[in-house]
Design goal:
about 55 residues, alpha+beta, two-stranded parallel ribbon, 2 helices, about 35% helix, globular
């Protein structure tokens, strides 16, 4: 199973999905173009410490 985000616009929502994927051990795919820079500080803040454990493809 995988989670796919299709053209996400809000980094906080994507960060929450990254956190969910990290907790469940499910990879998250981002289908570009995204409405934000992937290494945006708001994205890292929303996903908290789980950002480092998530495989982003």
């Amino acid at each position: 199973m995988r989670i796919a985000l299709f053209e996400p616009d809000i980094p906080q929502n994507a960060g929450n999905i990254f956190r969910l994927g990290a907790c469940l051990g499910i990879p998250v795919d981002i289908i570009e173009p995204a409405g934000f820079v992937i290494d945006d500080k708001r994205l890292k803040r929303a996903s908290m410490d789980y950002y480092d454990y998530q495989k982003i493809l």
